[in-house]
Amino acid sequence: MPTQIESATDYEFIINLVYERCRIRLHDGKQQLIKARLGKRMRALGIATLSEYCDYLRRGADDGELTHMVDALTTNFTNFLREQDHFDFLVKTALPALVNDRKQFKVWSAACATGEEPYTLAFYLSEHFRLEDRWDWRVLATDVSTKALKQARQGIYAHDRLATLPQDWWRRFFQKGHGQWEGHYKVKQELAERVEFRQLNLLGQYSFNESFPVIFCRNVMIYFDRPTQEQLVQRLCQFLQPRGYLLIGHSESLNGLQVPLRCLRPSIYQKA
Question: Are residues 252 and 153 part of one domain?
Fold first, then answer.
């Protein structure tokens, strides 16, 4: 069935709905992305045009359909060891300065996509805060996309997705697939069980019963306008421990935002 676009008004409706739902701004020029990514969902519903799909949403589609729409349109690009200096900073500088004698802490990966970031955190933590030395660490991994979280929870990746990892980590941290899973690798259970995946809209309503020494929120604010970025960072700071660290993407900056953080180096901030 063709996914014909009827008018620019349909694009505007989708762009505004995504912004209202999760504050991600799909800028002008994203028409082809919208057309391509919503096409599969429309075919599944038996809807021929974007105009009809917009009417379907206007008539009161439930939260499940809105979730499908957000899943289709949000970008979940990531890879293992992305921006590696952040992981080195975590284990060599941030955590040694903050963790206490109870040897217990939790790190938050706030936009975890398909799981590569939180699992990389688990790999690093297992090396530097060894479980056999009675360290009790956890990783909280959240994302707005239920589709991405489903893949993340499986912890199964094609061999080419592991290309950025040292070869010896393939053996230490993954189980090699056989038969129908030939060419795939699964994160070992003892590490996977240390990572908790949870669906969460960073601009929605949520709370935690704990604070975090370090929060990773990388390469997500590039999709938000500056007022939304400030609102998000203010919210994240509520859950940072005193003198805790917020790590953002290398291409992002908090310059000009009114937030209780000081910049230690580009992309690394500490709570004042």
Answer: yes
CA distance 258 to 251: 19
| Positions marked active-site | 37, 143
Q: Between β-strands 104-109 and 136-143, what pairing exists: parallel, antiparallel or unpaired?
A: parallel
What contacts 190, CB < 8 A, 6 or more positions away? 131
**Shared-domain flag, residues 16 and 93:** no
**pLDDT per position as a tens digit, 83-107:** 999 999 999 999 999 997 779 999 9
CA 226 centroid distance within chain: 19
* Domain tally, the chain: 2
How far is residue 190's CA from residue 131's CA, in Å, rounded to a whole number? 10
Mean pLDDT score of the chain, rounded to an integer? 89
